[in-house]
Input
Amino acid sequence: MFNLIPLKKVTVNVIPSTTVIPIGSTVGLKLYTNGVLVVGMSEIEGSKPYEKCNIKEGDMIISIEETAITCTADLVETVNTSNGNELDLTYVRDGKEYYTSITPTKTTSNEYKLGLWVRDAAAGVGTITYYEPSTGNFGALGHGIVDIDTEDLISIANGEIVSTNILSIIKGERGNPGEIRGTISGQSSIGEVFKNTNFGIYGRLNNLDSLNINYENEMEVAPRNEIKTGPAKIICSLENGVKEEYDIEIKKIYKNNNSDNKSMLIEVTDNDLLDLTGGIIQGMSGCPIIQNNKFIGAITHVLVNNPKQGYAIFGDLMIKQTRQID
Output
């Protein structure tokens, strides 16, 4: 009989007992790439120096002539001092290093160009999810930061989170996601970013005072098998930097999902939040979710055609990433 009864295989993601302090503060994020990211190409006065070098959008140039390229300024200086001689480049694609060569083109302004558009940093506004007092580490966003041009996850060398001033809130509508608009120029540093992953941004805090952390709010991280459909709360900081709790409902739970950050389907039910934002908007990614006085996860996505609904990531998936910080 035992051989005739099929059993469903279920993957269980177990983490050690963990406590965190849910945060919910809106912050600015600055990420610096490990090299320079190729985001586009263009002719240089009718010439295409990149045409036969095999480099494409999404590649990361990390060295030229065995000299490390850490930022756009390094690239510009190295190319300009080449005198038009062929240059050996090392670049990274899908985690593997490749080698090629390219000959810069001289412009009418006596500069040398490769015809490559590159970027060495990314910035934006999001929400810091939790602080772990035992390690000093934090988790934020619940999803990774991708390049706006290549749509690939940005490989970073380092980064920082900074304070932000919220300038305006654009209310979300069906087919048109809203957003939190803020400025990060001239703001104070809050912490260091070490990891940009598909499951969020992770690092270590060094300026706790700016987040007004209340250690009385420390709570357990709930295992996913304790999460139930039904009422829960999120913590957001949307007006004047004041953190508020808002009601949501957990509609569906995908308990066996370890492959992405769409662990739960949620819906905003709080009338005050719906009046203010229309539901979930850009910048709310990372808002912590609390159920039965335990941290269970964070908002990650909005459904474009129904901004009241979106997805959230399990807390255990975020903690797993935190554990990998050196």
Helices lie at 72-80, 271-277, 315-322. The domain at 43-114 is CATH 2.30.42.10 (Pdz3 Domain). The longest helix spans residues 72-80. The chain has two domains: 26-32+121-322, 43-114.
